[in-house]
Design goal:
two-stranded parallel sheet; 346 residues; mainly alpha; binds zinc ion
Length: 346
């Protein structure tokens, strides 16, 4: 059987399992309503946790863990919105939802620009011009550098951009990528970071530098401290840092760690969905999965059946895994860490 035939069977069987599930629980058909309820609940809960922390009723770590979980759910919702799964025919509500899920996750790319990169990802997963995945360290050799830049879209991408753009140029020269598409990808990758992504990264860089300098000052009496003006700005930004940015840093690290190791890179056969991803369910990934709503369990399913909500994918994941396993999709292939995410042995 060819990979295309296998893929078609996997698709057909997963779609059938979704149909059965929806027939059993008709409430699942109210997609817009469910999506909007998840959206509002996550926003209210995260604001509630923020308030409880602000009035000293919960410690900072509880706020960070709680909001990282909730923003992880909102990330899944954003991904659904990128695929026009909610309010497709009501662009105002649709775009308002997209705006808010971005504002509470400002370390990420602007979702309207991300849509360009993400659609490209679905079409060309694992190729040198899969900008979305390469932007989160997919395909690189494992090192301390990769670990440090896993959550970082600004400095991390600044260090990577020359290599990435020259790879894109090579792909255009070889005829693997249209010139216009290449241009669109590059522009989306750069403009998508402006302004919130860059601004929120800079706030975090200053925040951590301040902590580090204070530590050096206390421990070794070093006199390099942040100027008072910057310390004042940091104090003013404190609620945003604790309620929004630190939870997102944790969430983004977990998501990027999981996604960049479940997608294969570099030697994926063009159009072969079976080789694009693996399923990651191994126990030690649970702490990471918790803050990206078990992305490792479900993202490979999404590569086969794109237009379905994240919660249906989640509810029906057991059946989907059974189908995928039967037809040769990989599960918990930890060799990927050794092979810089190549599908085959190097
Ligand atoms: Zn997608
Ligand atoms: Zn993917």
């Amino acid at each position: 059987m060819t990979h295309q035939q296998k893929t078609n069977i996997i698709k057909k069987e997963i779609i059938a399992s979704y149909k059965t599930l929806k027939a059993k629980y008709p409430v699942l058909r109210y997609q817009n309503f469910i999506g909007f309820s998840i959206f509002i609940s996550c926003l209210l809960f995260s604001a509630g946790l923020g308030y409880l922390w602000y009035v000293d009723m919960i410690p900072a770590w509880a706020l960070i863990l709680g909001n990282a979980f909730l923003f992880g759910v909102l990330h899944e919702l954003e991904h659904d919105l990128i695929h026009f799964i909610y309010f497709k025919n009501n662009r105002i509500v649709h775009n308002i939802m997209l705006l808010f899920v971005w504002l509470v996750r400002p370390l990420t790319l602007n979702p309207w620009f991300r849509r360009v990169l993400h659609y490209h990802h679905h079409k060309f997963s694992g190729t040198p011009h899969d900008v979305e995945e390469r932007g989160v360290t997919n395909g690189e050799k494992w090192s301390l550098k990769r670990l440090l830049f896993t959550p970082d879209l600004v400095i991390g991408n600044l260090l990577r951009v020359v290599g990435l753009f020259s790879d894109i140029k090579r792909e255009v020269d070889k005829g693997n990528l249209k010139f216009q598409t290449a241009k669109k990808l590059k522009l989306s990758g750069v403009f998508g970071l402006i302004p919130f992504t860059i601004l929120s990264h800079v706030i975090l860089y200053v925040f951590f530098t301040d902590i580090f300098l204070d530590f050096l000052h206390d421990k070794y009496q070093l006199n390099w401290v942040m100027p008072d003006a910057i310390k004042n700005i940091l104090t003013w930004c404190n609620p945003i840092i604790y309620i929004v940015l630190l939870p997102n840093l944790l969430r983004q690290f977990c998501l990027h760690f999981i996604t960049s190791n479940l997608h294969y890179f570099g030697d994926v056969e063009q159009g072969n969905v079976i080789e694009q991803t693996q399923v990651l369910t191994v126990w030690w990934t649970y702490p990471f999965q918790l803050f990206c709503f078990f992305f490792g369990w479900t993202h490979a399913i999404h590569h086969f059946v794109v237009n379905e909500t994240f919660y249906i994918r989640h509810i029906a994941h057991k059946k989907a895994h059974e189908i995928m396993r039967k037809h040769g999709v990989r599960f918990n292939d930890l060799g990927t860490f050794r092979r810089a995410n190549r599908y085959h042995e190097i």
